[in-house]
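Quick start: what a row looks like.
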Amino acid sequence: MSVAATESGPPPIRARFGRLSKTYRMGRESVLALEDVTKDVVAGSLTVIAGPSGSGKSSLLRILACVDRASSGDLEIDGRAVGDASRRTRRRLRQHTVGYLFQDPVDNLIEYLTVDEQLRLAAQLRGRRLVADEADRLLTTLGLQSRRGHRPQQLSGGEQQRVAVASAIIGEPALVVADEPTAELDSVSADAMLDAISLLCTEGAAFVVASHDTRVIERADHLLRLEYGRTAESW
């Protein structure tokens, strides 16, 4: 995995969005989910998108993951403009450049595949062959070495979510986006999950996590707090 910074300067920017706004059509009415939101996401960092339910966190994540388009504003992922990109380009970005984690751990995994097979498939979808040393290092980092032959139903919720992180990080995507990754986890599992994310960030990964969990917010390197779709706090 690439390092977060070099001797020549600050860590690279993995995502940059400026004055992003998102409006949804609800029948004849328009609902403003995001308004003029701006932030840079740098390598080697955990950026937390905080705020109450309905504040626009999930809308912002879906835009960053190239699932939805912003109504206005600018978005760059790994130096590439995304706003006007074709469907094919956006699909390739989702496949090769952005990792995405759903809130419910089981939604991130294929029920009949072992941990090793999940990683192998994730690498294949990114156009790569899974290297044994890479898998070993990643599973060791995430505390999953002894679970690599298990299927999702044989894992705890915390283990499932850590397998999802491993699958998302395989192939070194520029950005990993996670929606409330600790919401379904107990305190011990949540702490293990956050320890794993922090360690991966020290190795150069860039995570954007939407959460209102104080445990997650306390681990943030950078914070964007939303209220009613607008920036209430940013650092």
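That is the whole record. The chain has seven helices and ten strands. The domain at 13-234 is CATH 3.40.50.300 (Rossmann fold).
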